[in-house]
Amino acid sequence: MKTRCGTLYGIGVGPGDPDLITVKALRILKSVSAIFAASSTKNGYSLAETIVKKHLGYTPVERMPFPMTRDKELLAKHWEANAGRVLEVLNEGDDAAFVTLGDPSTYSTFTYLVRSVRRIAPHVPVVTVPGITSYHAAAALSNTPLTEGEESFHLISGANGGRNLRKIIESSENVVVLKTYKYFDDIFDTLEDLDLVDRSILVSRMGLEDETVVEDLRSLKGKTLPYLSLVIIKKRNRT
Ligand SMILES: C[S@@+](CC[C@H](N)C(=O)[O-])C[C@H]1O[C@@H](n2cnc3c(N)ncnc32)[C@H](O)[C@@H]1O
């Protein structure tokens, strides 16, 4: 029986374009015994898995289902089950990787997995491998500088509509809003109130065939946006 516990790697695979995965991420993915990816219980799809498969072909990637819900109890139940499955691999002395879109430290399901694994087995070695975030890739795609000089920058979630934005924009020259898809109209109304519509852009489904950069946010009012959408707001200069 092996006594060493395997290492759990959290690997950021970038936001969509398979070329935006790091050399280190690929090296580790080629070395581990098992690769896991979170997938929605709704459609079973994982973009992180698709990115990995572009590089590793038939190497199996095991999906870890979790519901898209804010119900903390239900989420905890799923992540505990997922943690148990990862621990089956680690307890054999084998290393496992969990792949996640963008960066594993930024609004990532990897955080939930590690928390659940450590609750059961606090000694498990964890290594986080950074990835290119969605907003860094969006800034590059649209040639938008995120900060300059003495400016500050805030990353916020749009899951509560424009509420966070109204607060944060007071103290920051640059704001990026992730998770905008469900609440875009409310975010748009807030931007309008703050006279910032013309200082904002929306980037959707970056790295995928239908990727879009929208400069006129008015054209999106009332439309259903893809889940993979973010807004960059620059209070001073947009370029
Ligand atoms: C749960 S967060 C994951 C963030 C990710 N870990 C990162 O480092 O960017 C999901 C949100 O990230 C943004 N996002 C991720 N990938 C994207 C893409 N390819 N195009 C546009 N937005 C993306 C969207 O705002 C989406 O709602």
Briefly characterize the structure:
With 239 residues, the chain is α/β, with parallel strands linked by helices. It folds into two domains: 8-129, 3-Layer(aba) Sandwich (Cobalt-precorrin-4 Transmethylase, domain 1), CATH 3.40.1010.10; 134-234, Methyltransferase, Cobalt-precorrin-4 Transmethylase, Domain 2 (2-Layer Sandwich).
Give a written overview of the molecule.
The chain is built from 7 helices and 10 strands. By secondary structure, it is of the alpha/beta class. It has 2 domains: 8-129, Tetrapyrrole methylase, N-terminal domain (Cobalt-precorrin-4 Transmethylase, domain 1, 3-Layer(aba) Sandwich), CATH 3.40.1010; 134-234, Methyltransferase, Cobalt-precorrin-4 Transmethylase, Domain 2, CATH 3.30.950.10. Strands 3-2-4-1-5 form a 5-stranded parallel beta sheet, with helices on both faces. The chain has a 5-stranded mixed beta sheet with strand order 6-7-10-8-9. Strand 8 (200-204) and strand 9 form a beta hairpin. Helix 3 (72-90) packs across helix 4 (109-120). It is elongated, with a radius of gyration of 19 Å. The structure holds S-adenosylmethionine. S-adenosylmethionine (SAM) is lined by residues 15-16, 101-103, 106-108, 133-134, 178-180, 203-207, 227-230.
